[in-house]
Amino acid sequence: MPILETLYSASRRTSNQIYMLLIILLILSQDSSFNASIHKMILPGVPWYKEHLLHQTSLGSLMVIILIRTVQYNLSKLRDVYLHTTCLATLANMAPHVHRLSAYASQRLVSLFYMLSRKYNKLVELRDDKLQTKAISTGDGLVEDMSAELQIYTDFLRIVLEILNAILTYALPRNPEVVYAIMHRQEVFQPFKSHPRFAELLENIYNVLDFFNSRMDAQRMDGEWSVEKVLLFIINNCRSWRGEGMKMFTQLHFSYEQESHPEEFFIPYVWQLVLSRCGFSFNADAITLFPIGMHANKEIYYDEMNTNQNGELNEQRVQFDP
Question: Which InterPro entries match (predicted)?
Fold first, then answer.
């Protein structure tokens, strides 16, 4: 809870603090027993969360909400690829073990796909505009940068679809709110139905949509479908769900790998904390371990993001283990 509360106030934290907290959550999410137990712990309330009333919410649902909120904050403020990667990697590790995800967390998860898809579509439009106007050689580098960023967001969207697939494949009967959120916002997936990187993953999502939509169309209702009626309908039909036609994909598993010389970052960072909070007086002119008044160089902390020949996410600090 203190970690999640600190991430909630990310705007008042340094980038290094955010990175370290996210890495802790990533390491915890590598443990399947941790992923299962956080959904069994019910919080009576979360008073520091102001955007929405969280009553009787599981710790797992809160963790999903905060990670997605961190991605949203990063999109608008920091725009750091590594931060996106770590948040999505943690969510992917958690996905197969999700149990009774709350309505708000489920809505935020589908909204995450929509949020990233808007950024993706904007990049596509900008790149295509540059290509159509036959930008001069000085602009070619800009087109290449856009294409590289577009590839990164393609990977992000695919990971979100993998997260949704893992929940639907391994835990659908236990997560009616996720089904409701996907049905409620099913139009956000339509533009990507024929995308070569997303088509196979969206087949599973539309298999679920077809299952519930067809049964809903066949059921006569007195009056309009209310939220409560739709959710009750989903809960009842989850019992007859057998997963026919669902393609089984290898579960994503991300792990944190410490670099060969982590002390290059951590020792200066810890001593910075000592200097700023211990209350003792030091001769600042005599300190040579780190630059005074500056944060530890983020370049030391992570390697540059790149993609492999298959276009998959490849980042040395967050590793994909098939």
Answer: Dymeclin
Strands (E), 195-298: 254-256
Q: Please write the tens of the pLDDT for every residue from 41-66.
A: 999 999 999 999 999 999 999 999 99
Cα 275 to Cα 268, 283, 290, distances in angstroms: 10, 10, 11
Distance, in Å, from the CA atom of 158 to the CA atom of 152, rounded to the nearest integer, reads 10
Cα–Cα distance for residue pair 245/207, rounded to 1 Å: 7
Beta-bridge partners for 43: 57
**Residue 27: its H or E element:** helix 15-29
Contact 35, 94 (CB under 8 A): yes
DSSP of 147-203? HHHHHHHHHHHHHHHHHHHHHHHHHGGG-HHHHHHHHHTGGGTGGGTT-TTTHHHHH
Strand duo 254-256 + 318-320: pairing: antiparallel
| Strands in the chain per DSSP E | 42-45, 55-58, 254-256, 306-307, 313-314, 318-320
pLDDT in tens, 156-214: 999 999 999 999 999 999 999 999 999 999 999 999 999 999 999 999 999 999 999 99
Look at the pTM and tell me if it is higher than 0.90. no
Nearest CA to 239 among 169, 172, 167, 170? 172
Q: Which pLDDT tens digit goes with each residue over 65-114? A: 999 999 988 887 767 888 999 999 999 999 999 999 999 999 999 999 99
If DSSP states are collapsed to H, E and C, what string results for 237-258? HHCCCCCCCCCCCCCCCEEECC
Judged by phi (left if over 0) then psi (alpha if -120 to 50, else beta), residue 278 lies in: alpha
From the number of C-beta atoms within 10 Å of its C-beta (0-12, 13-18, 19+), residue 91 rates as buried
Determine the residue type at 18.
I
